[in-house]
Amino acid sequence: METLAERLGIGTRHLRRLFLKHLGATPSAVARTRRLHFAKKLIDETSLPMSHIAIASGFGCVRRFNAAIRTTYKRTPTHIRRIALKRERLPEDQYLFRLGFRPPFDWAGTLGFLAPRAIPGVELVEGECYRRTILLNGQEGYFEASLDKSGLALSVRIQFGDSRTLFVIIERIRRMFDLSADWQTIAARLRKDPALARRIEASPGLRVPGCWDGFELGVRAILGQQVTVKGATTLAGRLARAFGRPTSAASGLTHYFPRPEVLAEAKLTSIGLPGARAETIRAFARAVRDRKINFEGIVETEDFLKRLCEIPGIGTWTAQYVAMRALGEPDALPSGDLGLVRALGLRGARELEMRSQVWRPWRGYAAMYLWNVPEQNGVHGRKALISAKKKMIGGKGDSGELMTVAV
Predict the structure, then answer these.
(1) SS3 letters for 199-245?
(2) 225, 130, 220, 237: which is closest to 177 by C-alpha?
(3) pLDDT tens string 243-294
(4) Percentage of residues of the chain with pLDDT beyond 90
(5) pLDDT greater than 90 at residue 82
């Protein structure tokens, strides 16, 4: 409680009042409920020993875990598992989860955005499935995600050696696909702009895709300065092959993205990067390595943007894009983006900033609609949009947005 309140810049009593007012429960009750729900999920959907589940769900010891489960569900953990639906038997260290969301959820639109930006060897969009390698606490693994047959959840398969980190992995995946978004509230605000209202009608449920790792996303954003999406993706693939650790974890995945300490001293011009761009990535890597730039925990957006823009070669466009996707800042807007300006027929970033005031606090979602959904009218327009998404998911699409900030 004290640590959380300090990070938020408020007192513990005020924090407790806010939780009671908006959630109807104390912070400790919310945390306990989250642990219980995740523990129940592990009991139902995995064959992990109960001792592992107790640690993975944050109870610390089996005695507290057993007591909490019995008090809440009126059954022992073993009894709950016995009456749960039988699941398919999975290979060792592999887990299958269903992650719910509030519909609608435009999975095709999300993949359409991620596919042309997927780092070759590190990420792969194939058919209706997203797959990538992951590193966490020195451990290696991968996961893949696809839309569940019900259409009301993502089906996520995780391969990872340390079951104690499953809660962290699941939380990252939920943030990555923006599964906690209240889309109806967001759409109600964005529909106030007619240009966005037409796009929302054509593609309801579009989310802001996050990222697995903030550092990786930051490097990808720097590579995307003043080049097409396709060009940046090619450079990112070269970077991963040259400096990332190789793997044969899953089909189509060959490397883990290189860590900050590796890129901080790497000779990046060897993969065809201009000298200035290479130095920007090295400086960014050093800042993350030395924890001057931090993506973990509660991050104050304004302070983060200020520190990021202090790195030579990083301007407002890059900083806002990183805040939008790596921090999950819903109101971030790369207003210097030429694609956004052209989508609305405006004359520049200043007009876009003025136009965007009505979208607040959801400007990041507006940017996704302007990037991802061409303005279409009627049934024929919706059919054209679906066809375009299928092409993008197949790897043939390229939105080609360009930034206008000089770096």
Answers:
(1) HHHHCCCCCCCCCCCHHHHHHHHHHCCCCCHHHHHHHHHHHHHHHCC
(2) 130
(3) 999 998 778 899 999 999 999 999 999 999 999 999 999 999 999 999 999 9
(4) 62
(5) no
The three-point CA angle 53-55-58 to 5° equals 105
> For residue 315, what is the DSSP state?
-
Q: How far is CA 111 from the centre of its chain?
A: 12
- Residues with Cβ within 8 Å of 291's Cβ and at least 6 positions away in sequence, in order, are none
Which pLDDT value is given to residue 85?
63
Residue 182 neighbours by CB under 8 Å, 6+ apart: 102
Residues constituting the chain: 407
Write down the pTM of the prediction. Answer: 0.81
Pairing label, strands 139-147, 153-160:
antiparallel
Which two three-digit tokens encode residue 87?
């699941």
Is 75's pLDDT higher than 60?
yes
| C-alpha–C-alpha distance, residues 75 and 192, integer Å | 50
Which is nearest to 104 in space by CA: 184, 198, 194, 196?
A: 184
H or E stretch at 123: strand 123-126
The shares of helix, strand and coil residues in the chain, as percent rounded to the nearest 5, are: 55, 10, 35
CB-based contact 76:69 (threshold 8 Å): yes
Residue 10, both tokens: 């408020």
Where residue 135 falls (left for φ over 0; alpha for ψ -120 to 50; beta otherwise) is beta
Distances (CA, A) of 8 to 3, 24, 221, 299: 9, 20, 28, 9
Distance CA(315)–CA(309), nearest Å, equals 5
Separation of alpha carbons 354 and 357, rounded Å: 6
- Percent of the chain surpassing pLDDT 70: 91
Domains and CATH numbers, the chain: 1-87 (1.10.10.60)
Q: Distance between CA atoms of 255 and 295, rounded to whole angstroms? A: 22
How far apart are alpha carbons 66 and 167 in whole angstroms? 18
CB 373 within 8 A of CB 199: yes
Coil, helix or strand for 251? Answer: coil
| Amino acid of residue 157 | R
104 with 120: CB under 8 angstroms?
Answer: no
Grade residue 88 by pLDDT with cuts at 50, 70 and 90: low
Give 102-133 pLDDT, tens digit per residue: 999 999 999 999 999 999 999 999 999 999 99
